[in-house]
Amino acid sequence: MTARRAGGFAYIAAIVFLVVLAGFALAVLRLSDTEQTTVNQAVLGARASQAARTGLEWAFYKLKPKNANCATLNPAPDFKTDTGFTVTIECSMQTYDEGLTPAGASVKKNIFELKATACNGATCPGSNTDLANPDYIERKRTASICVAAADGTDCY
Q: CB–CB of 136/121 below 8 Å?
């Protein structure tokens, strides 16, 4: 009679041990899934940031010629096929007179304020539908550039 009670306790202890072990395995799987999702979001965020930076550098290139203005940036480049991200560039320009040339003409300088938004949605910035998508990524970068209006050289 006594030996029979000891065997029943071992079965119950084994079942409890297996349940606890299954709980640990489930927690490890859940942590692994969360880690993979976090890494994917970080990679997409880095790619979106680089796409926004590419948009700014494209805008710098387009604004360097003589008498360039914000209309020079239209049409916007298509980065969707190359990067998977749509890039929207917003531009504003201020023109300042800064002194005179030796010939007596005014020296005009254009300062461009640029904002590049990159996202993997249909439009940038994304709509409310895009924002509800957990895979939606959006990054913004801003920069300014000063260009001499007469010859497109950098301002100092």
A: yes
pTM of the predicted model as reported, rounded to 2 decimal places: 0.77
In sequence order, what are the residues at sequence separation of 6 or more whose Cβ sits closer than 8 angstroms to the Cβ of residue 132? none
Peptide bond into 125 cis (omega under 30): yes
pLDDT, tens only, 97-143: 888 888 888 888 999 999 999 998 888 888 888 888 888 999 999 99
Nearest to 52 by CA among 62, 42, 44, 41: 44
Report the alpha-carbon distance of residue 126 to residue 117 in Å, rounded.
Answer: 10
CB contact at 8 A, 110 and 69: yes
